[in-house]
Amino acid sequence: MATTGADLGRPRGMTRRRAETRRRVIEAAYDVFIELGIRDAPVELICERAGFTRGAFYSNFASKDELFLAVYEVRMRERTDRLRVAVDEAVAAVDPASADAVSRVLQQAGVLFMESLTADETWYLLNAEFRAQALRRPELRAPTADTERRFHDALGEILLDMLGGLGMRLTVDPRSAVITIVKLYETLLERAILDELPSAADSHYLTEVLPLLLAALVVPDHG
């Protein structure tokens, strides 16, 4: 069964009405977090944007930290879905027997994953803010790690399916490969922010370095 927008971030057993409340709070929180950051985002403003009272907020989330993790889960699932579609299209468009098939697909997937630098810069800053909190606060480490692990596992499945379609396989476990890719991507964004690059930043790392890096992690699958 296809997942609808109202179902994103919806725990099993939750009623549709409560899931709709949860969805609206998550969407409002994303907008407020983008505008003000996590620390300075008032719960009252999030509730006002969502059209609910504080009671609706606390009946669904114990804290802003828990709410941010729900926002993260939804946003990463949306990104994963878009990436899967684009990668499937990229694989279908190349001849697996061609010498540059893997490189071409990785280039297209990398550019899509990057999306626009302007949009991702703000999201990256939110993630960096929350990660700093999670590193300092032991109670946030396990839920943060669990949420990131689900995202990385989903990306690992996409990577395995992509390589399978190209007749290749990884020489390392999927999660290690994904973490390497994600960190390279985050480093590119960090450098662009610190160097104050324009939004149309050079994607040299994604079009050249990333394909070379992945090529070093894969071999033909003869099995």
Task: Characterise this structure.
The chain has 223 residues and is mainly alpha-helical. The chain folds into 2 domains: 1-61, Arc Repressor Mutant, subunit A; 63-220, Tetracycline Repressor, domain 2 (Orthogonal Bundle), CATH 1.10.357. It contains 9 helices and 2 strands. Strands 1-2 form a two-stranded antiparallel ribbon. The two termini are 33 Å apart.
The largest sheet, given as strand count, sense and whether it forms a barrel, is: 2 strands, antiparallel
Shape: elongated
Strand order of the largest sheet: 1-2
- Fraction of residues in β-strands: under 5%
Count of runs of 4 or more consecutive helical residues:
9
Q: Poorly predicted ranges (pLDDT <50, ≥5 residues)?
A: 1-9
Number of strands: 2
Q: Write down the domain tally.
A: 2
N-to-C SSE string, H for helix and E for strand: HHHHHHHEHHE
Helix/strand structural class: mainly alpha
- Average pLDDT for all residues: 83
Give the distance, in angstroms, between the N- and C-terminal Cα atoms.
Answer: 33 Å
CATH fold field value of the largest domain:
Tetracycline Repressor, domain 2
Q: What share of residues is helical?
A: over 70%
> Which assembly state applies to the chains in this document?
single chain
